[in-house]
Amino acid sequence: MRSQFTSYEQLPITLTADHVAAALGISRANAYILLRSDGFPTLHIGKRMVVPKDRFLQWITDSVNG
Questions:
Q1: Would you say the pTM of this structure is higher than 0.90?
Q2: Cα–chain center distance at 31
Q3: N or C: which end of the chain has fewer CB within 10 A?
Q4: All domains of the chain, ordered by start, with CATH?
């Protein structure tokens, strides 16, 4: 999926696997692997998986800062 966003501020308040993939420049399949991984801020709503934007941005910051 090609990103329609030019900055993180333009992302919606909750992110889908497609949003995560576009934001990180990874495949949709790899985004789903990430959403299912320990330590990634995924919320499970029924069968749906979403990521709150603020927690996603914090995860990026934490990952970069080690």
A1: no
A2: 7
A3: C
A4: 12-65 (1.10.10)
